[in-house]
Structure formats: structure tokens, C-alpha cells
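#structure-requests
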Amino acid sequence: MARYRYRCNEHGPHDVSSPIGTANVAEPCPVCRVPGPRMITSPMLSLSNRGVTAAMDHAEKSADQPEVVRCLPAGATPRLTPPGKPAVTNPAWAGLPRP
């Protein structure tokens, strides 16, 4: 089975699975049932395991839809430095000018 992508003008793209070589020129949208044309896309094949594929998909999605972090995760503690001590983690950075 292969997945073919079709585009509805109102609801966007949707996928249809059918045997290789049997894709229709247009398929109805699952929401409004209006036929939409087939989109030409790269083959949807995956030879890697699901974890690697999911990580790559997440990285690709973050390029134009980054997740916004609004707070620290549960259980995380902020790393605070004592007053008067610079927050230097690498000794080589100690000689750099400070703003």
C-alpha cells in the first residue's frame, strides 16, 4: 500500500492509502466530500525505525513551527549563581570581557 496526498481548497491536505499505481486523479475531502486534486510529493517510505523517524519529523517541523517554552519543566530547578559570583562554567571564558 502507498499513501497519496490530495488537497482540499478549504480543509488542506489529506492522505489516502491505496495499492501502488492505482491513485485517482482526485479524491473527495473527508470533511466536505468535495473532490481535490492529487499533490505531487516525495514517496512516503521509511526504512528507519519509528523513534528515529519521529525525531527527524520533529526536527523538521521545528524549523517553521517551533515550540515555545513558557516555563521550566516539572521537577526542573533553575540554575542560580550566588550573588557576586559570575556564572562561568568554562575557565577559558573567565578572561572574556563582561557587558
